[in-house]
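Hi all, posting the design record for the shared folder.

TITLE: backbone redesign
STEP: 1 of 1
STRUCTURE INPUT:
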């Protein structure tokens, strides 16, 4: 049996991520377990952070350093929200087709960012419901149904 191994981040990257995680956990303490459960995967050139259904956190450390710790913490909160809101399973429930995955991710982003921006989180360039002609404070499934039709 072989196991997939994730290369540990370089010490400076690990310190940066630790600072961003700690800040994120201070901002939304109820997400602390999720924030520290995500397993970082160094992803040079990715241009952002993202997560998959296995709680892997793909991080572009050059982008993280360009954002700084505060904005990176806000992006970590965003990614943790994808996981605790169970967006991967909910996509399956609404039968998101392969060609609709980008749309689902867009409405999920808008729903998360709506809440985080309202709290004053310094997200870099967040997509918000009004950018998609959607009402504020909506839920992902509703947003998706509106834009899908
Ligand atoms: Zn997102």
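Okay, here is what came back for every position:
SEQUENCE:
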């Amino acid at each position: 049996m072989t196991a997939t191994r994730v290369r540990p981040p370089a010490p400076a990257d690990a310190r940066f991520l630790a600072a961003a995680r700690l800040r994120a956990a201070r901002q939304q303490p109820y997400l602390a377990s999720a924030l520290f459960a995500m397993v970082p995967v160094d992803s040079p050139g990715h241009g952002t952070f993202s997560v998959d259904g296995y709680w892997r956190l793909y991080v572009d450390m050059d982008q993280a350093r360009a954002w700084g710790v505060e904005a990176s913490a806000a992006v970590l909160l965003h990614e943790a929200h994808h996981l605790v809101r169970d967006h991967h399973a909910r996509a399956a429930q609404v039968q998101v087709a392969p060609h609709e995955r980008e749309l689902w991710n867009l409405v999920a982003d808008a729903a998360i960012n709506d809440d985080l921006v309202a709290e004053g989180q310094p997200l870099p360039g967040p997509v918000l419901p009004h950018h998609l002609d959607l009402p504020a404070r909506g839920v992902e499934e509703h947003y998706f149904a509106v834009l899908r039709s």
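COMMENT: The beta strands are 39-42, 49-51, 56-59.
Let me know if anyone wants the other runs.
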